[in-house]
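Lab notebook, bench 4. Still working through the backlog of constructs that have no structural model yet. Next entry is a single chain of 209 residues. Request: give me the structure tokens for it.
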Amino acid sequence: PLALTFLLAAEATASAGSSVFLVSGRAARDMAQQCYNPTSSDLQYVVAICTRVIDETVLSGEPWPYATRAVAYIRAGKFDLAITDLDQAIYASPFDYPYLPDYFQYRCFTQLNRGETQDALGACNASLKLRPNDATTLEFRGDVQYALKNYPAAVADLGASLTAKPENADALYVRGLARMRNGDAQGGQADIAAAKAKNPDVAKDYPGM
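Model written out:
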């Protein structure tokens, strides 16, 4: 990966100067690989290895170790820590960085879960500006629009997401809720029934909605 190529070049530069890092050479490359493409399902391990990459190698200025750690925090439900890392990943990313749309997407999802709906909308918009028509980001923005009670916009975004991923029971279920809230009881009930046919437990993920 490009990040590991950067690591080799940066180590050569550091070894020629006065900077001293705790981990270098093959050990640093192995750590970077484990953070860059984690195969472990142990979230604590992913957080630990990416923290070591950030703190102990020359890659502290790269965005992806922060983003990988942020995803682990999201999966662990630690949204405050995830936001901090996503801010750093976004800050460190050039505008044309290929994963920048993902970082904004993760930020949208995280802020929605923190109840920061307006900020979440801004993050989803930023992601879609860089990568238009992304089905997952459109789904998240639809969820945000629903939370903001912008039901027509929620129906539109979730419908656009379903055009790309018609099998998505979650998007179908929330669109059904949005349709009902927007006065389309028949269409909403049809969406909800179709979502439950795809995933009988889908309603359990949306209590109180």
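Notes after review: The chain has eleven helices and no strands. The CA atoms of residues 31 and 141 lie 35 Å apart. Flag for follow-up if needed.
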